[in-house]
Write a structure and sequence with these properties.
Blueprint lengths: L1 H7 L16 E2 L2 E2 H14 L5 H21 L4 H8 L22
Antiparallel strand pairs: 1-2
């Protein structure tokens, strides 16, 4: 099917497959979901604390999957910004998150 679509295009057009915008995957999971587990192994082995950090990585994996299934893509960044954990420069379009009442 792809060959017939490529042949139907003009010389100034290019065919882009649908999978271009899919997230990077590790077996069945997105990279951003598996990253905490990999980091817990990477930090737990040299510090001999694998029994402490692996459950934290698994818990983060479980919570991240649930949040990703329920809410929009940037919800964790938004929550972190709203509570002041993720600081940003104060501009006219991005006010200080710790100021709850804005006046003109």
């Amino acid at each position: 099917m792809e060959d017939s679509q490529q042949q139907a295009l003009r010389s100034d057009q290019h065919y882009l497959p649908m999978r271009v915008n899919e997230p990077m995957m590790v077996i069945f999971w997105d990279v951003d979901e598996v990253r905490p587990i990999i980091l817990s192994f990477a930090l737990g082995v040299p510090f001999d604390a694998i029994n402490y950090v692996l459950p934290v990585g698994l818990l983060y994996f479980y919570v991240a999957r649930r949040i990703k299934a329920k809410y929009a893509k940037g919800i964790l960044n938004h929550i972190a910004w709203w509570h002041g954990i993720l600081p940003m420069k104060t501009t006219r379009s991005m006010p200080d998150p710790l100021i709850r009442e804005l006046f003109r």
